[in-house]
Design brief:
Layout lengths: L7 E4 L32 E7 L2 E6 L3 E6 L5 E6 L9 E6 L3 E6 L3 E5 L1 H9 L12 H9 L5 H4 L11 H10 L13 H21 L6 H5 L23 E6 L2 E6 L10
Antiparallel strand pairs: 1-6, 2-3, 3-4, 4-8, 5-7, 6-7, 9-10
Helix pairs in contact: 2-5, 4-5
This protein binds a DNA duplex through helix 4.
DNA sequence: AAGAATGTTATGTA
DNA sequence: CTACATAACATTCT
């Protein structure tokens, strides 16, 4: 989708999607119709991301809030317009392109105050120019919660997912069980900087790339990980251990990620 | 074809 | 209050 395009949105209701506040997004027939109701004809003037939350701002202070969750996808097609798949909830249309958003866990129309609430409850996002890393450091420094949990707490730092968590901790040689308060300023800064580096590469390449090789030569690689779901550590050749943090799988190299002697 | 997966939130339990 | 576990929801792929 070229930047600066004026896009229009249409949406349809599906099961519990668009619940509560935004029910009227659906067309009367429950079918996908370009330009049905509410969002119809409103120009999208800006798209912002706050961590994993997407906010499309339309004229007259309407905001479309999208969270793709685990399964959501955004697919960009060139015109002409074709039928949307059943899973498509929102379609954004410009003069040249059609964007289908399917399977989002959040899909709602909000006004400015609700968007502000949303932003307030989300921690600093390393991808954003206006991010204040000191807020992240403060939260971590004052917490007994292990860093492996804090990293995926979106109110602490926004945007880190399950793969980036494992990969960041490995790259920084940090064991996920280290308590937040046991990290020093230098480690915190390095963690933030590396998160910003990796996320920027990911955003640019539209792929999760965390190995130095993939970063240096991302042309032919899509997803490339050091230890996530891998057998051996690329650095020490030691075995990778699978653990669970908050019910999500995580991986560690017992040799490279030493537990700190501190309690 | 059952199960797993790059996510989040609400609710239950100790 | 905390901390943890479980369920619910979304979809696609093997």
């Amino acid at each position: 989708m070229p930047e600066g395009h004026t896009i229009h949105a249409a949406a349809r209701k599906h099961d519990n999607m668009l619940k509560g506040r935004v029910v009227n997004l659906s067309s009367p027939q429950g079918r996908f119709v370009e330009g049905a109701q509410k969002l119809n004809g409103r120009e999208c003037i800006r798209v912002e991301a706050y961590g994993k939350h997407l906010v499309y701002r339309f004229v007259e202070h309407y905001y479309l809030h999208i969270h793709l969750g685990l399964f959501g996808r955004i697919k960009v097609h060139k015109r002409p317009i074709k039928d949307a798949k059943n899973s498509v909830r929102v379609r954004l249309i410009s003069a040249t392109h059609v964007i289908d958003i399917s399977g989002p866990t959040i899909c709602e129309l909000l006004r400015a105050p609700e968007i502000e609430q949303l932003i307030d409850r989300i921690g600093p996002d390393p991808l954003r120019e206006d991010a204040e890393p000191e807020r992240v450091f403060h939260r971590i420094r004052n917490s007994r919660v292990p860093i492996g949990k804090l990293l995926m707490d979106q109110s602490v730092i926004a945007g880190i997912g399950n793969i980036y968590r494992t990969e960041l901790l490995w790259r920084q040689k940090l064991h996920p069980d280290i308590r937040g308060r046991d990290l020093n300023q230098k480690q915190l800064e390095a963690l933030w900087d590396d998160a910003a580096l990796l996320l920027n590469i990911g955003a640019k390449k539209n792929a999760i790339l965390t190995t130095d090789i993939a970063i240096a030569n991302p042309s032919k690689s899509r997803e490339k990980f050091n230890i996530f779901a891998q057998k051996a550590c690329p650095k020490c050749r030691g075995p990778i251990t699978k653990i669970f943090i908050n019910g999500r799988r995580a991986f560690i190299c017992a040799l490279c990620q030493k537990q700190l002697p501190k309690r």
